[in-house]
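Note to self: user wants both folds in one dump. Writing first protein now.
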Amino acid sequence: MIPIARLILPLLFIFFCSVALHATERPWDHITFTKPDDVVAYFHSINYSVANWQQGDRSVPRVYLTHIPDHWRDHYAGAVSTENKKKYFFFMLTPMVLRANETIARQRAFVEAMQQTRAWAEQDRKHLQDIAAEYAVTAPQSAGDAAAFNTLLRRVDVVPASLAMAQAAIESGWGTSRFASEGNALFGQWTWGDDAIAPQRVRTELGNYGIRSFKTPFESIAAYMHNLNTHPAYEALRRMRAQARQQQQPLSGKALAAGLEKYSERGEAYVKEIRTLIRVNRLTEVDKAYLRDGRATVLQPVEEGR
């Protein structure tokens, strides 16, 4: 039985979530769980299941995981089948991926609206400048600044959910890697400094590097998308995505994977692995998924006995 309490979360948690999630999604439902099966039971109770998916329901509840628990890696991952491990991973990850994309989509809609508006309010101009700074480009100065708008819109765009989920599965070992359990790190993003999670085999010639850690899985997803949208290594992906937009084609994770050769030292072999994972797990359907309206639910894993 899952202990469920409808309450406002502690202020510290709300502070983190206020950046990640829209204010209208509060107050929250707060659910604690000990085993993956508890979450599955809850998902079934809100019509979020394999059966619903197979019946064509692509709606996804706003359920967000606070952190990846150590006991998932230590106790449960080795005991469940690969099929169930995938189900747990994808069903938990999808709402957060869609939420990260929802934030980007809102930014993009604002930028597009500004491009169509001749007279800008000072508040809107400032917001546009903030978005441009976030994506590391020069802000447009007027609605007629086509080059600046094109540059900005090439970066302010969503990442297909199928692509994000396939990469997360590869980089985190279906959420069971040490980096995932120690730092909610789902995408193996490198960083330098004392706060990095050191790999077991350190390449000393690269300096004091490690895997970037995050307070929550959502922050890891948001940082991954920002990386794809800003780093010079993924300009090819952004160019392909912009071309698809110009041709009014839906964004495809399998197609955009071609722009990720520089994500891994494995290059083309890495791209092939992404595409294979998308195909085998039928993740292209996830690109049609959308978040339901209504309250958000925070899922907090706790160890048994607590």
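First done. Writing the second protein, which came from a different request thread.
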Amino acid sequence: MSENTGSAKKKLSATAIIIIVVAVIAVWAIGQYNKLVALDENVANQWGNVENVYQRRADLIPNLVNTVKGAAEFEKSTLESVINARAAATQTKIDASSLTEENLAAFQAAQGELGAALGRLIAVTENYPELKANENFQELQAQLEGTENRITVARRDFNEAVRPYNSKIRRFPTNLIANIFGFDKKAYFEAEEGAEQAPDVEFNF
């Protein structure tokens, strides 16, 4: 009888150990999952900020184009390139859950084209003193300059949010949780060159 009791106690003890181990693993897994969710939400929040500042620039452009058209005999092709580039840039949207290198590269290219077209427009206005003296134009210039600065900050903050997220999903054993629940790597904004560089909107009046 005592042998049966001892055997039962051993089985019960083994079962308790298994339950405790499973519970510890479950608690750990839940904690890691929640951390990944928090990092992912931070990336999504920073991406929203990026979209907002780019949209702010896009919203300023129609007023800039109208001011330029109203104050000067401006090159039609220059204005059309800005309008077309703006249309392409505003149509290029990415959901925060699909921030792949390919998608972000397409977004960056579209915004870069708009930046380049805007830069050409700004450069040509140097030939029109009456336009440079226009108060509305000066105000738009100041807003554009501020927006370009905000874009730089938003892109930097986005990259800084992506870095710990990408690092977390690659580290063992958290990568096991990431793979199970589909936490994918996010792309970074890369340094821009040439036509993709943000336009210089500083003026000397």
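Dump finished. Worth passing along: Residues 45 and 112 are 22 Å apart (CA to CA).
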